[in-house]
Amino acid sequence: MGKSDTIKENRGNETSIRRQPSVAVQLKRKLLNRTSLNGTVAILGFFVLWHLLVVMQAPFMKHIPTPVTVSKTFFILVQKKLFWVSLWFSTKRVFYGFVAAQVLGIPLGLAMGWSRKFKDLTFPVFEVLRPIPPLAWVPVSILYWPTNELSIAFITFIGAFFTIVLNVLRGVASIDKELYRSALSLGAKPQHIFWKIILPSSIPSIATGMMVGIGITWNVVIAAEMIAGDKGIGRLTWEGYLAGDTPTIIVGMITIGFAGWISSAAVKIISDKMMPWRRLF
Amino acid sequence: MTNTEKKGCIEAVNLCKLFPQAGRKPLEVLKDCSLTVEPGKLNVLIGTSGCGKSTLANILAGYDCPSSGEIMMDGKPLNGPGSDRLMVFQETALWPWMTVMENVIFGPTVRGEMSKKEAREEATRILELVGLQDFRDKYPAQLSGGMQRRAELARALINNPKVMIMDEPFRGLDDLTRELMQEYYLKIFEESHCTTLFITTELEEAIFLADRILIMTFLPGQIKKVIDVDLPRPRDYRVLTSKRYLEIKGETLECLLEEGRKCFGDECNIANSMVDEFRRQANDVCDR
Lengths: 281, 288
Prior knowledge:
The structure holds two protein chains of two kinds. By secondary structure, chain A is mainly alpha-helical.
């Protein structure tokens, strides 16, 4: 029949469109597209503008070194062990705090979304603790945790924890009723509902929570290091300030920026991996 | 799939459903609504939009409770949803994180009726029936609207339900896809003769598919009239030009328009002239 022919034709088209290109082609497409070219131009433009403003002695730019001075300092710093040790320590603190926040926060959020009673019991405490800024936890954290590393990792944990819990909770609450109903009517028991419906449907919210969370942990770790740390990029930046060494401060700031950016990209890759059904086209 | 023991006769007696409204008296969506979904037949429920068809469907499927009244299936009272009465929804309710295959085998595997392997074999057979054998490893978002509906049909069919409740399953599809879906669906029904309650607002769809048409009144909802569609099976599109088809269409339309007038007000001359037009068409075919 004519109608079934049309369907077959469609099939042919759809399968041919979704053939995977080779890795080299994929990489080339990723690096050499309009968005990344524009991005490069923007970053270069930013440095040029900065340089011009300093050279022309624009107001408020008196104490700012030029990008050239900063890059000189940068090249000296990267040859020192201190720089890499600092970066390693900050990354480690971010990583531990972030991972702990996910490991504890995701199950807690799921449990709160799953059981009304559990939510009623825990949410009030959660809502009182949530507005306390991570840095307000510094004194008690130093007193409580045996080592400096633990107390800083704890503070980064606090930074990401509340965000992830809230996101997961909202994700579970916003699950489509019909997706839930159809599972019920097909005879799914509570454990199937949880593992096959609730958990996967909350993955997009988990991913959002992770994206926001990783940004917060970098914010928090730097501040915590300035107050309480030894080592770390935050400490390096702070010591630059104490020594009146402006180029080091700016190198520290830019390093934090790039480290945060790379972390976000890594989280993006992980969250895309968690949602194979979202990257189809 | 043909199973002579399988019955699935749903009888609903005097169903009432009230929806509370803030500051006003509750909205009476169903009032003394009684109907029988006859076993082995394609029962089509038709009514103007907003007349309570979906409410009725949700109650029969067990997702919602009636304010009063009784529902029996094969003589036993019903409570709650179950895999013996499966519902296909207006909007697609496939789980986006599962492939078509995973969606289809969900029912039999969670109930522990089939091993994964058996379920996969059965699913392959059913996906072939709905023409999706090449798409079993795709995610729902990779399918077109019509394919999603067929996948959903497959997900229901694999459970071999006693009753299928289909709530406007082809709504929102373009005309051509809709016609294709109707043909596919008829083929499946004529093979399985699974008791079905099919809900629609489309008159042509109703007559083309149905063994019985149940016409619903506009609020409060009741069954106004039951029309037996005695068009021969298997059917195809030639049926749409037969004399009997037009007669049934005229009869159904007249009944529906009476209800339509209630929600539009009495002055509905266009509607009246449409009924006349259909009668004339029917007579023309008669004369030929």
